[in-house]
Amino acid sequence: MTHAACLPPDLHQWVARHVAALGTAAVTDASWPRGNSRIWHVRTDHGEVFVKLYPSTETYEREVKGCEHAARVLADSEAPHLLASDPQRPAVILTALPGRVVRGLLLEQAEEQRVHRLAGDLLRRWHDADEPISHRGHQRIMESVTAQADEAAMILERLGDQLSPAEQDLVRDAARDLPGLARALPLAYRHGDYSPRNWLWDAAAEHHGLIDFEESAPGLAVEDLVWLCGAAWPTRPDLRDAFLTGYGRLLSSAEQRALVLLTARLGVSYLSTGLAKSDTVLIDRGRTVLEHMVRAPR
User: Fold this and answer.
1) Which of 66, 105, 108, 243 would staple 116 via disulfide (CB 3.0–4.6 Å)?
2) How far, in Å, CA of 193 to CA of 227, rounded?
3) Which of 269, 266, 258 is nearest to 159 (CA)?
4) Is the pLDDT of residue 215 over 60?
5) Is the pTM here over 0.70, yes or no?
């Protein structure tokens, strides 16, 4: 949801140095209702841009690196262009893309399948682009996977009696098997939040775009499929088929097992956080993901 807004004064002065006619611009707050990043949509007579202000240098650096990666591997209109950046604020100015955010759009089945096929194609090109991973980068990937496995083990010990026997077995498998599986899985420069809320669809041009790179980083390629695996594919196998058709290959048995276990870890994390905060939305989300993953092939 967007609404009329003003840029903070110091940010306004910085943006004015890079955006013509800012004094007469229409500014709307386009921030997500969650998270700490702030986003403004700025419309002038000369065009449209987005201004993003980040909660940390780390998220800012990931966005900049993601924009640079996108510029190398995607078409001009498939991702925003970085017009200006300032690590001291930290903030960026990005070009606007055609289309509307896919999440929440009411699409006919055939059109929705097409969007997911194009999303698969884009992600395959994003993953296939050469992006060297340092020795320390490899270590961080393994540390991240190990931390996820440790979290699953900790939650299982604390909440095991609130899980069904099948769910307990699934979470136990995640805690035991994820680090070993990760050592043999393809690595890639991940988008980090690959879901319909970050896809744009221009129906008239049948064009798909991608935004929001502040979670991008080296990791397991299959991690970019976790949201889809937990939220979309269990009830819409046609979208899974469309996406993987676009992606250009099926998942290996090791990737499929890792994907289910990573998604189960996310589900039990939702459940644990929801119970701790008495958040019924997170509780329901966690239970739904776990129920789906128990039935998923692995």
Assistant:
1) 243
2) 8
3) 269
4) yes
5) yes
pLDDT in tens, 266-281: 999 999 999 999 999 9
How is residue 131 written in tokens? 């992006």
Measured in whole angstroms, how far is the alpha carbon of residue 178 from the centre of its chain?
20
Task: Assess contact for 94 and 50: CB atoms under 8 A.
Answer: yes
3-state secondary structure the chain: CCEECCCCHHHHHHHHCCCCCHHHCEEEECCCCCCCCEEEEEEECCEEEEEEECCCHHHHHHHHHHHHHHHHHCCHHHCCCEEEEECCCCEEEEECCCCEECCCCCCCHHHHHHHHHHHHHHHHHHHHCCCCCCHHHHHHHHHHHHHHHHHHHHHHHHHHHHCCHHHHHHHHHHHHHHHHHHCCCCEEEECCCCCHHHEEEECCCCEEEECCCCCCEEEEHHHHHHHHHHHHCCCCHHHHHHHHHHHCCCCCHHHHHHHHHHHHHHHHHHHHHHHHHCCHHHHHHHHHHHHHHHHCCC
Query: CA 160 to CA 215: how far, in whole Å?
Result: 31
Examine the pLDDT at 81 and tell me if it is beyond 80: yes
The residue among 194, 246, 248, 243 whose CA lies nearest residue 220 is: 194
- Determine whether 235 is exposed, middle or buried from the number of CB atoms within 10 Å of its CB (0-12, 13-18, 19+): exposed
pLDDT of residue 47: 86
Tokens, residue 262: 């990573």
Strand partners, 202: 207
- Domains, the chain, ranges and CATH? 3-96 (3.30.200.20), 101-295 (3.90.1200.10)
What is the rounded CA–CA span in Å between residue 152 and residue 168?
A: 10
User: Per-residue pLDDT for 3 more than 70?
Assistant: no
